Amino acid sequence: MAGEAPAKGKNVDLPIRLLSAAVMLAVAVAALMAGDPWLDLFIAAVVIATLVEFILLVLKATASPVARFVAIAAGTAYIVLAGLILVQLQPGMIVGVVGTVIAVDTFAYFFGRTLGGPKIAPSISPSKTWAGLLGGVVGASAWLATFIYFAARQISGPTTMGFEMGEIGTIVAIGALLAVAAQAGDFLESWLKRKAGVKDSSNLIPGHGGFFDRTDGMIPVVLIAGAFLGASL
Questions:
Q1: Whole-Å CA distances, 164 to 96, 141, 169, 176
Q2: What are the residues whose beta carbons fall under 8 Å from the beta carbon of 106, sequence distance 6 or more?
Q3: pLDDT score at 14
Q4: Which one, of 128, 123, 126, lies nearest residue 111 by Cα?
Q5: Element (H, E) at 48
Q6: pTM of the full predicted structure?
Q7: Quick check: 203 and 12 in contact, CB under 8 A?
Q8: Who contacts 31 (Cβ-Cβ below 8 Å, separation ≥6)?
């Protein structure tokens, strides 16, 4: 997740980050285009990797057997449920959901770096700013408006025009909800990593850390999307 205040030397690993991001995007797009069973296998692999990293973080962050059991049980339900929702969504809806999270991350990153300003919870994630959260809301709303517009054109044809004011308000409200949810997922993982005393959930993805570092904001957004879309489990 992004929404970061400017930091010295932030772009040192930018080339490897961009290369890793390109590889991840290529694999995800290939799985999406291949469809079942490859898409389901891809989602399952990401869910398993995320869950393993989460469990390892919990083991490092807690000492009490009871706390570990409760945290692992809750986290397993949290992560696996998101995966089950994803495998039931149509490819187009997966693009809509994942695109929302990417838009939140991208806009939050650039708003945070450009505007800086007060931080949301420096004791948990010192790089996250209110400006970044605002950028996340803008990004999510812009992506949702674009996605809904082109989806409507595919259904109704090229005569589809713009949005009414009430519809714009609804899109912005949903965008704000999803941006806050994505940031909350990021804060949850940041808090867990601080408790565990680690910077990343793993080092499996060069320049990005681990799978949980990439899916932390996506999980709550998928859960909300599942609730909105009525995905049956």
A1: 21, 15, 9, 18
A2: 2, 139
A3: 62
A4: 128
A5: helix 38-61
A6: 0.85
A7: no
A8: 38, 39, 41, 42, 43
Question: Which residues, given as ranges, of the chain have pLDDT below 50?
Answer: 4-10, 231-233
> How far apart are the two ends of the chain, measured CA to CA in Å?
28
**Using an 8 Å Cβ cutoff, are 42 and 27 in contact?**
yes
Three-state DSSP at 169 gives helix
Alpha helices in 89-164 (DSSP H): 91-115, 130-156
List the one residue out of 179, 190, 192 whose CA is nearest residue 218.
Answer: 179
Residues 6+ apart with CB under 8 A from 29: none
Instruction: Give the per-residue pLDDT at 7.
Output: 44
CA 20 to chain centre: 17
The two tokens of residue 197 are 């005393």
Whose structure tokens read 């209110």? 130
pLDDT of residue 5: 46
Q: Are 82 and 219 in contact (CB under 8 A)?
A: yes
Please give the structure tokens belonging to residue 158: 């090229």
**Which SS3 state, helix, strand or coil, does residue 108 take?**
helix
Residue 73: CA count within 13 A, CB half-sphere: 6
- One-letter amino acid at 221 equals V
Residue 155's pLDDT is 58
pLDDT at 174: 94
Q: CA torsion, points 165, 167, 171, 173, in degrees to nearest 10?
A: 70
Contact 79, 54 (CB under 8 A): yes
* C-alpha to C-alpha distance for 135 and 140, rounded to whole angstroms: 9
Q: Quick one: 133 exposed, middle or buried, by C-beta within 10 A (0-12, 13-18, 19+)?
A: buried
